[in-house]
Amino acid sequence: MSPRTINDVLGIVNTTIPAPSYHNNGRCEGIFLGAECMKRHTADAGWQLTMGFKHVGYKLCGHNLSVNKTNVLTILEETDPAVVVVQDKREWECRTAGQQRSNEYRFKNIEVLKEKSDLFKLTVLKDCHQNQEYHRKSAKEMDVHAWITYYHPRIVKHFAPYVREEHLMRTYHTVDRTVVPKYTPKNRRGALLSGAVSKAYPLRKVLYQKRGLIPDLEYLPHPGYHTRGCVTPQFLSKLSSYKVAICTSSQYGYALRKIIEATAAGCIVITDLPVDDVLPYIDDNLVRIDDNLVRVSSDLSRHCVLDILPELISNYDAEKQSHFSLLACQKYDWRVMANNLVQRIEQLRNSYS
Fold first, then answer.
1. With 70 as the cut, is the pLDDT of residue 189 above it?
2. Do 285 and 344 belong together in one domain?
3. DSSP string spanning 241-305?
């Protein structure tokens, strides 16, 4: 028996999935295995990702999609791809948005992907803190080469220790520039706090509980997760009537979508997103004026909010917010983000070993 290590003492087990082999065949055709029902989800982030792959030339495969099939064997025979991107398994098993599980969206014979070393395979990993074993098994049954994720790679690796950090393809949440209301500084009021109130959002929970003591702060409850239709346009319209949006990042430090949405809608953003998770264009030195994100501590008291909000509201700069709104609409538009993501997928595929 080998001498013990520090990891042995601490009970740390290396659960990282070994990198599967890959033989690049020089081709570049791609397909996306998705769930058409996502276009009716409360929020359309997943559907924008889906349409982004279509925008760059990938064929959409799945129930009610362009290739209206769910048998992966048949899909591969019909499309003969070089790259396969698979949506989060929870989505095509209808485990999200309060859906009843439906077999019509479920992919059959997904395990055949494991046998294809000449296919570059990726899957989407969103809520990496949930269902670790479920997602690990999903990645193993396909032998994925990489994961597409919205959040910082170090955070993802911490909550999903089975992933290989060097094979995390980070993208960012997106908006549709054609849906974001045209920027105007007129008729904007104080600040908006929005979203679910739970232990996963400690700062939001405190602010919600003390909202009656914070002047110029309004609260918008979460509409609930459902498939009765997307409410993202209504949310963007609501945001566009405020000067400030409080966008907490949860106890997991996630760069949540509303940070991008609020910026696109012309809001100054107060957030507890970690300072070393820098969001391009709206949060770094690529711009010559102050960043749009006002970072605060996760244990911020209501008294600090009382100090911060009046200053931000009274100093609201229409020229500055118009600038950031334009940047967010341009750089975080789902079409632009899709182009960037696929370019990086190709870079990883060509350098993969």
1. yes
2. no
3. TEEEEE---TTTT---HHHHHHHHTT-EEEE---TTSPPTTTSSTTSSS--SEEE--TT--HHHH
